[in-house]
Amino acid sequence: MNRDHTRTPLIEAIERHRSKDPISFHVPGHKNGLLMEDPRFYQGDLTELSGLDDLHDPREAIREAEELLADVYGSLKSYFLVNGTTVGNIAAILASCDPGDTVFVQRNCHKSVLNGIKLAKAVPVFVETEWSERGIALGIRLDAMKEALKVFPRVKACVLTYPTYYGFTYNLEEITEELHKHDVTCIIDEAHGPHFTLGSPFPKSAMECGADIVVQSAHKMLPAMTMGSYFHIGSKRVSERKVKEYLTMLQSSSPSYPIMASLDYARSYIGTFSKEDLDQTLQDIREFVYGISRIHPQLSVKGTHDPLKLIMEMEGRTGYALQRLLESEGIYPELADPAQVLLILPLEKRGHSFPYKEAISRLNRALENEPVVEANPIKGISRSRRNSPYTSLALTLEEMDMKEEVLVPLDASEGEISAGMVTPYPPGIPLLVPGERITADVIWRLKEYIVNKANIQGHHHLADQCVYVYR
């Protein structure tokens, strides 16, 4: 059945409610924006009133909106998430694993995946990622997964990141097929790939690759509000009852209607995205890249597997220095690392315009007085030095509970077992996980982040060059 994706059932329900000029004797306390200086935005911030449905028991507008969502992505069942992909990752793991189960995890996973495994009391085995020479995660190799399966044949689930934060993909379809031969539930954190459902020139979507569960950050790549994400069930391997139970348990009992409405809009936006829209998006990107190439002889941009992700480099400068130059003219990239910055570009429709020309003009101003300097090779931040394609924790969760935490100097921590999660943010990929042995490579990378004043979340005292370890 062909569905009408120009419709936005939840937004329509909110508009019907607002058209009644309602008087609010209900939460939230701003009373339909009456108590605010500018009430327009707040007038859509409503609650579970008649006609507006209930996220945790949808039967009307939200149910129809989620059915349209499932139609776009080809899932068996799809859900709106108002607490981000974080809550989706955790719910997926809890619904798929029992205490003591082995879970394969891509080493460059988001911290929410590790938190979900900890809550499930499962046992993580880290499958190593390939890295570029400049420290960019490229993905998982099929032979690494096969080797891990030989050693851990009773693995219950596998959580993979696809695409990577930097927009790179890998042979997910073959890996999923191999995992399914061993009856392993395949959970994909596709936070940065909700637009892959559009097809070429974007990579294959995780749903198309046969994933059992896919969680997407609509707010990262589609026009949805922050914390708005999608959760898709792709196979009967997954218990819909358990998923719903955990999503109800973990998400707010007072879900945001503006976030849900934005998810409804984002689904309609991509569900009606045309070839002409895609042509405009790609043409604007090509012109932007060409414009950048003419600004400075040492400035360059490189594409990734995702046309909406660009990596910008400047010879002889760190990514942090380049970020400061860009921000001096009001251009804010997604993130910087010691080697480069990452730009995330918009998925444009005809009739919308993004200020690419203004960005080029500002880049010119930022770099017009920058001298050409001798290029020095910049080491990557995340190149793995492990010989094995997989690693496991040095301590179990039970053993960690019995150990004492001690603060030690970072320079003296090699070989010790980390007692804290240490996570540069962005991208939110932990460099250290509780129970993991600290290596010289990790120490060097942490020092790189410290020198460049990067934001590092977690349980640590890196301002004093110290970390917590178990004794």
Tags for this model:
471 residues; alpha+beta; eight-stranded mixed beta sheet; four-stranded antiparallel beta sheet; 14 helices; 33% helix; globular
Helix content: 25-40%
Strand content: 15-25%
Mean pLDDT, to the nearest integer, reads 91
Parts with pLDDT < 50 across at least 5 consecutive residues: 380-385
How many β-strand stretches? Answer: 19
Q: Which strands sit side by side, in order, in the main sheet?
A: 1-9-8-7-6-2-3-14
**Spatial shape:** globular
Intertermini distance: 61 Å
**Biggest sheet architecture:** 8 strands, mixed
Report the C-alpha radius of gyration, rounded: 23 Å
Q: What structural class do the secondary elements suggest? A: alpha+beta
So how many helices? 14
Give an overview of the whole structure.
This protein is an alpha+beta fold and 471 residues long. The protein has 14 helices and 19 strands. The strands form five sheets. The chain has an eight-stranded mixed beta sheet with strand order 1-9-8-7-6-2-3-14. The protein has a four-stranded antiparallel beta sheet with strand order 10-11-13-12. A three-stranded antiparallel beta sheet has the order 15-19-18, with no helix packed on it. Helix 1 runs antiparallel to helix 2 (61-73) and helix 3 (84-96) crosses helix 8 (240-250).
